[in-house]
Design a protein that fits this description.
By secondary structure, the chain is mostly helical. Helix 3 packs antiparallel against helix 6 and helix 5 packs antiparallel against helix 6. The two termini are 30 Å apart.
């Protein structure tokens, strides 16, 4: 699935409105593809170690967004000193309806598809292969970072660190819903322009 996502980097060659719609279609196809081969989202995985209670969930979500903002600030400040290559991210969305659909439905599709592939399925696959927890965390984070390569070095570094944090959180809580919630709010903070 990571390879398919990497092959779809071509969506970044289109204008913002079109690339976003291509991304939505990609996410829906990934979700339906996983369902069609018999995969199911496990909302609360049996690996649960320590469940989080109501207030702890809010703290974890807020801390995750704060960590992301700090990472993004660091990489914006450090960015001029890093090696450069063209940023092939999404173009500017010029249609308000598409922007608001992307900030809601689009980001939900991103969070569900990426957390399903890079946390839940990666964890299950690694465990079936007998990989150590550290290897599972590292490999899933590296694959997650790889799909963000078109956005540049800073995006790869940020998403790798984010991947480490959320995979460790998944291993602790087993909660798929928590990961989707965190991923959604981090992306909302990033793509809505709230952090840059």
């Amino acid at each position: 699935i990571t390879a398919i996502m990497v092959l779809l980097f071509g969506k970044f060659l289109f204008p913002g409105n079109v690339s976003v719609i291509i991304d939505w279609v990609e996410r829906v196809l990934i979700i339906f593809g996983l369902i069609s081969i018999g995969e199911r989202i496990v909302w609360q995985a049996p690996l649960r170690r320590v469940p989080l209670t109501g207030r702890q969930w809010a703290v974890v979500v807020l801390l995750s967004v704060l960590v992301f903002v700090v990472f993004e600030f660091i990489f914006v400040v450090v960015w001029p000193y890093l090696p450069h290559w063209p940023n092939f991210g999404y173009g500017i969305i010029t249609v308000d309806v598409i922007f608001w659909l992307d900030m809601t439905l689009g980001l939900v599709l991103v969070a569900v598809s990426e957390e399903w592939v890079f946390r839940q399925l990666a964890h299950r696959r690694g465990a079936l292969l007998g990989h150590s927890p550290a290897r599972i965390v590292f490999e899933s984070s590296a694959a997650f970072a790889l799909i963000h390569l078109p956005k540049g070095v800073s995006a790869v570094a940020i998403t790798f660190l984010f991947g480490l944090i959320v995979m460790m959180l998944y291993r602790r809580t087993g909660s798929f819903f928590l990961l989707v919630l965190i991923h959604y709010f981090v992306n909302l903070a990033s793509f809505s322009g709230a952090t840059t």
